[in-house]
Amino acid sequence: MKFQVDRDVMADAVLWASRTLPTKSTQPLLTGMHLVADESGLTLSGSDADVSARANLKADVIETGTVLIPGRLLADITRSLPSAVIDFSIEGNRAKISCGRSSFTIPTMPVAEYPPLPTMPGLSGTVTGTDFANAISQVAIAASRDETLPAFTGVKIDVEGAVITLAATDRYRLAVRELNWSPTSTSLSTHALVPAKFLSDSSKSLSHSDSISLAFATGNEGLIGIEGSGRQTTSRLLAADFPKYQTLLPTESTTVAQISTSALVESVKRVSLVLEREAPIRVHFANGEAVITGGGGSGELAEAKEFIECTLTGEELTIAFNHQFLLDGLSAIDSAIAVVSMTTAIRPAVISGATDFGAQPDDSFKYLLMPIRQQ
Amino acid sequence: MSRSQLNRGNSARNPQGDDAGCNILHIDMDAFFALVEVRENPSLAGKQVIVGYDGNRGVVLSATYEARKLGVHSAMPMSRALRLAPNAIVVEPDHEKYSEVSENVMAIFESITPLVQPLSVDEAFLDISGAQKLMGTPSQIGEVIRARVSDEQGITCSVGVASTMFVAKLATNFAKPDGLHVVPADKVIEFLHPLPIGALWGVGEKTAEQLSRLGLVNVADIANTPVKTLTRVIGQAAAEHLYELSWGRDPRVVTPNQAEKSIGAERTFESDIDDPEEILAQILDLSNKVAKRLRAANYFSRTITIKVRFADFTSVTRSKSLPASTDLATDIYATAKSLFEAMHLQRARIRLVGVRATGLVPTSESSVQLEFSDRDSGWREAEEAIDQVSLKFGNSAVKPARLIKPES
Which one of A199, B93, B157, B307 is CB 3.0 to 4.6 Å from B354, fit for a cystine? Predict the structure, then answer.
């Protein structure tokens, strides 16, 4: 096996394929990266028990072949090499990597024993890279990182024809986004719960792709495949039950506030300086202005108070939130105006975005936030 | 001041010690539970007395010096203690009595200085910087306290006098029993360096073993080892901490009336258990106890810790912070259960389990992050109702169904 490849192209592809390598594994072979050089170029792949990633790239293949080499080490080396042409060859059971004045030899791993990667399921449809990455980043923020509750670490994907609905929740907030895409069939209906971290990582890496293919295989061995720009990745689906969230979305509200998103974000950040640990931030919504307060209480603690412009429909209301959850929602709507719809101080508030004061809110994204009840 | 007090003042174990600048006293009751029992029942005086339960699984909580001479010490299994001291008299503990005596003793300390930091029922640090003008030198104050504890409470204590908290605590070991030991401010290094490294605060069996592999035996060895070398073995935080201590530097100050740091409950089983269902039932029961005590003390907790001790006496603890603080057994149990299950024990034989709530916040300052699943009337109301019932009808009046044993 022998090939030449541009260092930047190689480093990029190795980075993609090494994302899924386990740091520790009970199967040492899985710490290896699998390289195949043939007429079509070079294919790199890596996987652990749950996820796999594969990259196809152009290379000058002088001699075809297959090899398995320590993945992390290969990633570290390619990242550090100068921008030049890499010469890669196998001599006996060592791989030789030369680039400019550097050269490395790495012992290879037994390639014959490397388990086959899961096969990419059949294509379900396509979506543009930026749309997909934006939508995923909006909902993934609400997913939990607590692995002991698997259902809350995932993004629920519901496909009904030309609309994908993405949802994630950690029990305290729920983010729901509707996204248009081009399915292979307008009658397609499929449902999958996918690890949020996997979706964020891979959609971010593929955000520059004009078209991303999504492929779902449901059933016992549920799998999602994502492909774009010569990169492929798969993940097992989470087997847990995602809560039926549709009933949580309030159908009416008695207080609707419109407020400048950036002004509210700045204000919440400043007021949160005085907050002790899990203490909430309080917002009093009134027509004309909203009052943001934090701290105080027993009298020994620092306090902060700010006023910002606000238009209100309905009744005045004081409500308390975890400030980070509020900031997450405000950044996720990605709009100039935040529209906050509420009923009482102990029912969820719904945050959506609008382009201007008085404009219709954009219903394609909703962020539900449970308040903090104060003693 | 009575004559006996004056006499004691003169009998300081090392009166020649220069106690200038030694503003910290560490006071530890001698064989606290045991000597309280002797005081209650003078016929026990001078005998081998062990406080603890004489069951299959009892441990020694305290023992008189007569019993200690035979090798008995606290935390030792009762069965072993009785092999060492077959003639010892075993007395069941009376915790109410001990806390009463403890409160009285702490009150004596607080009459000397407001800067009293209790470490446990029978141990406290005192900062006496402000008391010396009125009451004399640190050793004189130490002797006054010893005399008053003896006269008023009928038990003895030992006092360590030094310029820092951890040296004072070490000094107490040299004062025991019924004495006082001064480590002069300019003799701290001389005092510390010959001690074994295990004497340093923060060095347990494991750390001591890791350090001994480097050939470090005495405190002096640590003092003369570069922090970098120590860091490689025990990590940066511990390395810097031990190095500072080895040169007698302890940045802590005596902090009085610290808010309660944790509330916990644990249980040693009559015989080892390996059935996960049974262990979870025990964890549920302990979670209920802890929640009840949190509510009674008006605290919310942010972090739940479980402790599991195996048949071979090794223990593991695991803890997890909650997304929102709680005082409810349902939340505590859910967290404790997930911690226990995450240990992936394969029917290990377990001797003890414990559940502890830490990161306490007073209820008045806490708030509850609501969840989507919260109903308007839920567990809080249920558990508070159980508290009310327990007040009237006792702790077992209402309990989770799986904790109710079928009538035999």
Answer: B307
**Stretch (H or E) spanning B39:** helix B32-40
B298 to chain A: closest CA residue: A375
Q: Span A2-113: which CATH code? A: 3.10.150.10
Encoded tokens for A339 = 């529209």
Please list, in sequence order, all residues whose beta carbon lies within 8 angstroms of the beta carbon of residue A263, skipping any fewer than 6 positions away: A308, A309
- Facing residue for A372 by CB, picked from B302, B361, B367: B367
Q: How far apart are CA B57 and CA B80, in angstroms?
A: 11
Residues of chain A with CATH 3.10.150.10: 2-113, 125-246, 249-369
Q: Among A248, A280, A348, whose Cβ lies nearest the Cβ of B367?
A: A280
Half-sphere CA count of B15, side-chain side, radius 13 A: 8
Contact call for residues A340 and A152 (beta carbons, < 8 A)? no
Distance between CA atoms of residues B143 and A67, nearest Å: 79
CATH fold of the domain at A249-369: DNA Polymerase III; Chain A, domain 2 (3.10.150)
The domains located in chain B, with CATH, are 9-192 (3.30.70.270), 194-246 (1.10.150.20), 262-402 (3.30.1490.100)
With a CB cutoff of 8 Å and minimum separation 6, the contacts of B337 are: B280, B283, B284
* Shortest alpha-carbon distance between residue B362 and chain A (Å): 11
| Residues A228-283 pLDDT 10s | 989 999 999 998 899 999 888 888 999 999 999 999 999 999 999 998 777 899 99
How near does any CA of chain A get to the CA of B373, in Å?
Answer: 7
CATH homologous superfamily of A125-246 equals DNA Polymerase III, subunit A, domain 2 (3.10.150.10)
State pTM to two decimals: 0.62
Of A277, A278, A370, the CB nearest to B370: A370
Minimal CA separation from A170 to chain B, in Å:
9
pLDDT, tens only, A308-319: 999 999 999 999
Asked if A174 is an interface residue toward chain B (Cβ–Cβ < 8 A), one would say yes
